């Protein structure tokens, strides 16, 4: 797409640039960051015309920048603490929440089927676009503007981490850490069920390779597993 010929699209991208405080030298990169593969296929765009390669790059840039920010933010934090915080901050839940706050959904280019299915609100599309935008900024301007953008939009999330808030899906965070460190996934086992059927209380243990890492309890299995994962972290 030659953007200057599509004045409405060009104008829309300029609005987004203003909202994030960064002006692209190559606006085609920004446009690509919002291009879903369904749109690229439908429009018979050239190979790699969608945002998936930018997403791949952005994921790596985000990881490096977030590690640097946390290293400076927590001078007394050991590797385990920093890894836990980073896993939370770069999780799909956090990326999706920030993408929604930035209104990324309205800038997406989607195929007709994806559009009809509500693709502008799909968390996977928002997460992909978020990382693709980071990758696009990195390619367009280098590490400094990418670092600046990430710092601005993730700062409130880092503050939540400092206050011990924000983490909801402890199981996902625990699984990411276990995968990275042990190349396997955790499992959960019910130790006991207490009370009548209508008012049960579950006690569950979180295990990695047969070894217990945490115990949690709750009114149902799901809550108990989250509590066990939280203790394991």
Tell me what the structure shows.
- This protein has 233 residues and is mainly alpha-helical.
- 60% of the residues lie in helices and 10% in strands.
- It has 2 domains: 3-162, Ribonuclease iii, N-terminal Endonuclease Domain, Chain A, CATH 1.10.1520.10; 171-232, 2-Layer Sandwich (Double Stranded RNA Binding Domain).
- It is built from 11 helices and 3 strands.
- Strands 1-2-3 form a 3-stranded antiparallel β-sheet.
- It is globular, with a radius of gyration of 21 Å.
- The N and C termini lie far apart (47 Å).
- 35% of the residues are buried.
- The model has no long low-confidence stretch (mean pLDDT 89).
Lay out the secondary structure:
Layout: H1 7-20, H2 27-33, H3 37-42, H4 52-73, H5 79-89, H6 92-102, H7 112-116, H8 123-141, H9 143-162, H10 170-182, E1 187-194, E2 201-208, E3 211-218, H11 221-232
Oligomerization state:
single chain
Helix content estimate: 55-70%
Number of strands: 3
Q: What is the H/E string?
A: HHHHHHHHHHEEEH
Mean pLDDT, nearest integer?
89
What's the name of the CATH homologous superfamily of the largest domain? Ribonuclease III domain
Q: Given this structure, which CATH class of the largest domain is correct?
A: Mainly Alpha
Q: Report the span from N to C terminus.
A: 47 Å
| C-alpha Rg (nearest Å) | 21 Å
Structural class: mainly alpha
């Amino acid at each position: 797409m030659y953007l200057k010929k599509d004045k409405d699209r060009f104008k829309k991208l300029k609005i987004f640039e203003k909202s994030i405080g960064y002006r692209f030298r190559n606006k085609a990169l920004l446009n690509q960051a919002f291009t879903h593969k369904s749109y690229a296929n439908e429009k018979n765009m050239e190979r790699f015309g969608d945002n998936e390669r930018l997403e791949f790059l952005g994921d790596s840039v985000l990881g490096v920048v977030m590690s640097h920010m946390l290293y400076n933010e927590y001078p007394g934090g050991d590797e385990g603490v920093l890894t836990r915080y980073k896993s939370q901050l770069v999780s799909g839940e956090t990326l999706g929440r920030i993408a929604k706050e930035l209104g990324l959904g309205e800038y997406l280019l989607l195929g007709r089927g994806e559009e009809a299915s509500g693709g502008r609100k799909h968390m996977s599309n928002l997460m992909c676009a978020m990382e693709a935008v980071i990758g696009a900024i990195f390619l367009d301007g280098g590490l400094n503007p990418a670092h600046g953008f990430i710092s601005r939009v993730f700062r409130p999330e880092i503050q939540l981490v400092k206050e011990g808030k924000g983490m909801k899906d402890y199981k996902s965070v625990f699984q990411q850490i276990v995968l990275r460190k042990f190349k396997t996934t955790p499992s959960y086992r019910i130790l006991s069920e207490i009370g009548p059927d209508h008012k049960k209380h579950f006690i569950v243990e979180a295990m990695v390779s047969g070894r217990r890492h945490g115990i949690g309890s709750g009114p149902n299995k799901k809550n108990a597993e989250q509590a066990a994962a939280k203790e394991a972290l």
